[in-house]
Write a structure and sequence with these properties.
- The structure is a single chain.
- The protein has about 300 residues and is mostly helical.
- Helix content is about 55%, strand content about 0%.
- It has twelve helices and two strands; from the N terminus they run ααααααααααββαα.
- Helix 5 crosses helix 6, helix 8 crosses helix 9 and helix 8 packs across helix 10.
- It is globular and about 70 Å long.
């Protein structure tokens, strides 16, 4: 694949490629231009499916129960936001219902609508062949890995009772979250820029808009989750009040598993090795900062233990 793109570049040829999994540029040069599309929401997928089933609905035929459709779309939106995956899951549930109907050899030809249990069974079956977290992380490009690394660092800081930015950060005056602060896209972007600006770094930070695109890719891959309480759409600046969405790990994704793959040395190139170095260095610095803070509290308490009000 790399040879194909390099050959096209030397001949002034431009290749436009579409990748549903966003892994096409994982091993390509950094100057490859990518355009990421926002994942479908549950409401959008539900509206599309209802529109496709409209002719049957007009004839009084129910293909899927409303509650099952709502559950199906929400599940697909949470995992990938991929409309095709949602439709595939619906088709799989329909096939399961049809198989059960045929096995019963019922003389009644009435279509049995897909119910909640059918969607759950189809979803469970599809998860058995879904890509693992490790495979998804391995397929990420460099910037996606850096944003994921930044989230892991932010999560580690909050878990240890620290602010999202270290006290020595030059950007501290522009962002000073509390210890209970949630990880918002804007806060994560600030830490991302601070981390990449550290001495010895070889990576350059992308713009705010590009950062949101990368965050969207991680959401599509099911490696990060961005809640939609206020919507998740690109804004002109990271200071927009609308950017109060919270970034978190989806259910079933473990921090230790992501870290293990992210810093793996097997078949690691120079950039992957640098990301490993960044994690080890930053994680160690975070642990030391937490220890200093804990020691400081332990010393301060006895010092004023016998103090009396004047």
């Amino acid at each position: 694949m790399r040879h194909l793109f390099e050959t096209a570049a030397t001949n002034r040829t431009r290749i436009v490629a579409i990748s549903n999994t966003h892994t096409l540029t994982a091993k390509l040069p950094d100057d490859t231009t990518t355009l990421h599309f926002t994942p479908y929401t549950a409401d959008e997928m539900s509206a599309i499916i209802r529109a496709r089933l409209a002719p049957l609905i007009e004839e009084g035929i129910t293909v899927i129960q409303p509650t099952a459709l709502k559950f199906l779309c929400k599940k697909a939106a949470t995992q990938t936001g991929d409309l095709r995956a949602c439709l595939a899951l619906l088709c799989q549930a329909l096939a399961m219902v049809e198989k059960v109907t045929q096995e019963k050899k019922s003389p009644v030809s009435t279509l049995i609508p897909v119910g909640m249990s059918d969607v759950i069974k189809a979803s469970t079956a599809s998860m058995a062949i879904a890509p693992t977290v490790g495979v998804k992380v391995k397929d990420l490009n460099v910037q996606s890995r850096l944003v994921l690394l930044t989230f892991l660092l932010a999560s580690r800081r909050l878990t240890l009772g620290l602010t999202l930015l270290p006290s020595s950060s030059p950007r501290k005056e522009t962002f000073t979250p509390t210890r209970r602060a949630s990880i918002t896209p804007a806060a994560l972007h600030t830490l991302y820029e601070s981390t990449l600006a550290a001495p010895g770094g070889i990576f350059s930070a992308v713009t705010w808009s590009e950062f949101l695109d990368v965050l969207g890719v991680l959401q599509v891959q099911g490696l990060l989750s961005v809640d939609d309480q206020v919507g998740f759409k690109p804004a002109r600046t990271p200071s927009s009040k609308r950017q109060e969405s919270r970034v978190s790990l989806p259910a079933g994704v473990r921090v230790d598993e992501v870290v293990k793959v992210l810093i793996a040395v097997e078949d690691a190139g120079a950039k992957e090795q640098e990301i490993r170095r960044m994690w080890e260095e930053q994680a160690l610095a975070i642990d030391k900062e937490a220890q200093r803070q804990l020691t400081g509290h332990a010393i301060k308490a006895p010092a004023f233990e016998d103090a009396e009000e004047a």
